[in-house]
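Give me structure tokens for this 492-residue protein.
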Amino acid sequence: MELSLLLLLAVLTGLLLLLARGHPKARGSLPPGPRPLPFLGNLLQMDRRGLLKSFLRLQEKYGDVFTVYLGPRPVVMLCGTEAIREALVNHAEAFSGRGKVHIIDPVFRGYGVIFSNGERWKVLRRFSVATMKDFGMGKRSVEERIQEEAQSLVEELQKSQGAPQDPTEYFQSITANIICSIVFGKRFDYRDPKFLRLLDLLFQSFLHTSSFAGQLFELYSSFLQYFPGPHKQIYRNLQEVNAFIGRSVAEHRETLDPSDPRDFIDTFLLCMEKEKSNPKSEFHEENLIFTVLSLFFAGTETSSTTLRYGFLILLKYPHVTERVHKEIDQVIGAHRPPALNDRAKMPYTEAVIHEMQRFADLIPIGVPHMVTKDTQFRGHMIPKGTEVYPILSSALHDPRYFEKPYTFNPDHFLDASGALKKNNAFMPFSVGKRICLGEGLAYSELFLFFTTILQNFSLASPVAPEDIDLTPRKSGFGRFPQTYQIQFLPRQ
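Here you go.
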């Protein structure tokens, strides 16, 4: 009812503006697309099932590069593997700007490593990549952290004695604890109420971005921001998370030893002290808090949701689980924990994990980009500041690269001899200069958590495999699997 009222108000306002403003003027020579109405943009061409369905339907008519008016603003859509790679890799600098996710922009306001632009983004990304490597990402120390966390999970799952349970909190906790160990210098107990509260705040915020109301807000944020809606709840949620981060920063400041930085926050505080006389420095508290929020938000939800989707897929296809069990038994055995160097000898398991990421399609419309200068692209002039959506789902389901794009099939990543093969359409973390800076960490987590769980447990479900539904619960900015119950049965 609330959504219908908001939409009606938006339409009425648009009709009034139609009389006052006339037709929108194209800037530059934008790619073709459906003709927009003033203020309403291409609302009439939008599919009720969401933005992704709308964009994929328009791709069929206008090709891989086209323009859609989301409300009054034009956004260039990139669909298919070639178009996305051509823009984000071949024209990497021009397409390296960050567009807005309007429903969370009032929280971030251009601060932090994910949603910043220009020199701020370059400084924060260089710092974040280097510092996360120093504290484990890409080194053996992070492997050991993941292995230890995986063993803690095994002990916790053993306590369940095979009872059916929702795995959401477990998967959120283990992925969040890896980020926490790097950023905060510590992990949390799975039953810590403050920790569980933070995880729920992040999860609910991510869900709200993918709701129908959340997608509608991306079209008419300038108008809907004044009304009740999910944006208000997201703002409250993330401000509560920021308050937690702020308290942690204050604690770090009080106990900081300049000769022995413990974690990401300590290292940032040392840079703040070093550059305190520079009025243009990007090392200040707002960038620290919002960079930590970015890492916490992105580093928890993407990996945990992939695991959640992945284990639902294994329940649906027990023959896949059986082959992974066999490969684990042959390569690792039962008496040592899985290690990252096992990956090279486990092509089927690796292919299953890749296919889980492809099939889960967690960020289907990608995080918005923005062109940093007037850019010639495929015969069109895209003006500086224009937003660009790389529709990652269109690459992950590209029929030119995947024989059965809408079917779960690990053979998509195996060659004729059974070896793992590269696929240029595989871009779950995007590509180019804005590729997820935690990509390597996420791959390590997925492999070690996945193999450790399957080394120790068989899987069962109260629901028969043929009745398990892989249709996403929500599909907007993010995709989420249906809620389900799973049994972890100790392997003999």
